[in-house]
Structure formats: C-alpha cells, structure tokens
UniProtKB/TrEMBL annotation:
The keyword Hydrolase applies. InterPro entries: KFase/CYL (IPR007325), KFase_sf (IPR037175). GO terms for molecular function: hydrolase activity. Residues 1-20 are annotated as: Disordered. The keyword Aminoacyl-tRNA synthetase does not apply. It is an enzyme of class 3 (hydrolase). Keywords: Hydrolase. Its EC number is 3.5.-.-. This is Cyclase family protein.
C-alpha cells in the first residue's frame, strides 16, 4: 500500500482494491452537505463564484467546447455506446412533392436523434459509478438507480448549477511544448498539475467552485490520425494519485479531452477506471469527458490567460446518469 502517496511510483500495481479503498475513505464527502444532498461538489459553486466568473468576460468571445454529435463519432459499441443516429422525419422534398398538406404553402422539416447519452461531449452524473454497491452520499446503489433511471441524483438536478469560473490546465502544451500532445498512457501527476499552474500564471490558480478543464492534446492527435481506440483505448489522463489534490482543491467539476478522464491503461494489473470509483461515488465530483479543448487551448495560449466564464449545463433529462452538452467558454 502506498499510504496515499501522490507519487505513482509508490502505487502497488497488484493491489487496486487496497489503493482505491484507502483513497475512497480518505477523500469521502458523504454527509458533508447533508444526508439528502444530490449535487456533491457542485455545492461549491455559489452566487459569489458566479459573479467572480461573470467579471472575467471582457471581450465577449465565445468558444464552444463540444464535439459534434454525428455518425462519424468515436464510439465502437462498448456497453451499447454507439454513435448518434440522426433521422429526418420531414424534409424539403416532402414539402415540394406534397404542397397541399399544409395551408397557404407552408412547409417544414423535422428530425429525431437516437443516441447514448455518453456518446460524445458529456457529463458523468453522480449515479453513473458505484463503489462496492454504494452510490454518492452512502446510499445503496439499488435504491438510487433502478430500471426507471436515477431516482435520487438524476442529472436534471444539475441543470441550472453548472455555470462557474472555468480554468484550463493545458498539460499538453506545458509538458510537451514541441507537440502540445501527451502520449497515450501518460499518467498526469499532482506535481504535473501544480507545475502547470505555476507555469501558466495566476489566472490558472485552481480553487473552490471552479470547473477544471485538463487538455491532454489526445483529441487533436486522433483528429489527424483517425479515431482508432480513442473510445476505451490507451490515453493520457489523471493518475489515481491525484485524488487527494482533486479533493483538497475543492473544485466543483473536472473535464478532459479524453474518453475516460483518467490514464489508460489504468495503473494496476487488473482494474477498470479506479479513479472514477473514488471521485464520483465517494467524493461526489462531477466528471466530464470527450470535451473539445482545442479552441479554448489556442485562445488561452494566445492571451496568456487561462480562466473564463464557463456555461456547461447538462440537458435536464429526468433520471439520467449522464448527459450530452455543448459547453461554452466566454472570455
């Protein structure tokens, strides 16, 4: 056991259960906001934080942080996660061929989309991951998420909450200035995060109520080379050993440009997404994945400024354990 070391070299690669349990217990926020809480660390966002964030808008520049939702996306079918299927239910051809269907020549188009809620840019809700059969705030998983959806912490509860100060830590540019891209399998450490803050300057100081964005550069690489194993395969990402930093920083949420937020392959011989197991059900941290951080990365690098107003609301889908979104950064 590593005794909560923040050095990945100290992890016992043969003991994922022990390493996860130690951190889950040390960084658990159960009861911190009361037994009925449904927001977790989103409680760190308050009116003062939003006012602070609003004052960051000086140019009126908007940058979308969302990938497109289409059939050419990254998904390969794992856990029935497929790319969106977009179907037209009314077209211009219909209007031309059937002009008398509606009065006075009016026509229109309609469409529908079928997709998993986590197929592209998305939030993981607090009902998405369990730890030994328990969900956020110590509730039994089966009492929270049923066949009818998340009956307690559904993503709809966060629909008006996720507006705050966004902070970009561009680890790709910081650690690999020649390419701006971390290699797959690179485990971002606490030391890396702190060094990036120091290098980027005061505007990237991370604190209570912030929404942290971590750019690895992997999305830029797969856009050049093809999706490959972007969905579920090797990727740069946060080390399990950053859990303590995530907890003490009191961030409201975190998002990355990768499929799974944490480093892949994971840091143990036999494990699956162990950092998720700590931060979602135990810490109550909302996690975002597959965000497009290329535009905001360029904007921040050009200005030498790394904070902005971030509007990142999920769709209020009742009982959902995740949601697609199109986050907007305002500078």
């Amino acid at each position: 056991m590593s005794s909560l070391s923040e050095n990945p070299a100290d992890l016992d690669p043969t003991d994922p259960t022990g390493e996860v349990r130690a951190r889950a217990e040390a960084y658990r926020n159960w009861g911190r906001w009361g037994e009925d809480d449904v927001l977790g660390t989103l409680n760190f966002i308050d009116a003062a934080k939003r006012q602070e964030a609003a004052r960051l808008v000086t140019e009126g520049l908007t940058v979308s942080l969302g990938q497109e939702f289409n059939e050419d996306g990254p998904q390969k079918g794992w856990k029935k996660r497929n790319n969106p299927v977009h179907t037209m239910t009314g077209t211009g051809l219909d209007a031309e061929r059937n002009p008398g269907v509606h009065p006075h020549g009016i026509g229109g188009a309609d469409d529908l989309i079928v997709m998993p809620l986590q197929c592209s840019t998305q939030w993981d809700g607090l009902g998405h991951i369990f730890d030994h059969g328990y969900a956020w705030n110590g509730r039994r998983a089966g009492d929270v998420v049923t066949s009818q959806g998340d009956q307690v912490t559904g993503i709809e509860h966060a629909a008006s909450v996720l507006v705050s100060r966004g902070v970009l830590l561009d680890l790709g540019r910081h650690l690999r200035p020649e390419t701006g891209e971390l290699e797959d399998g690179y485990a971002i450490t606490t030391a890396d995060l702190e060094a990036c803050v120091a290098a980027q300057g005061a505007s990237s100081a991370v604190g209570r109520g912030d929404i942290l964005l971590v750019r690895t550069g992997q999305l830029a690489r797969v856009r050049r080379q093809g999706w490959g194993d972007y969905a579920g395969g090797p990727a740069p990402g946060l080390s399990l050993t950053t859990a303590g930093w995530l907890h003490r920083s009191e961030i409201a949420a975190i998002a990355t440009d990768t499929w799974g937020f944490e480093v892949r392959p994971n840091e143990f011989h036999d494990s699956f997404q162990p950092l998720h197991q700590i931060v979602i059900p135990n810490m109550g941290l909302t996690v975002g994945e597959m965000w497009d951080l290329e535009g905001i990365g360029r904007a921040c690098a050009e200005r030498g400024r790394y904070d902005f107003l971030l509007s990142a609301q999920p769709l209020p889908i009742t009982g959902a354990v995740g949601s697609p979104l199109n986050p907007i950064a305002l500078l």
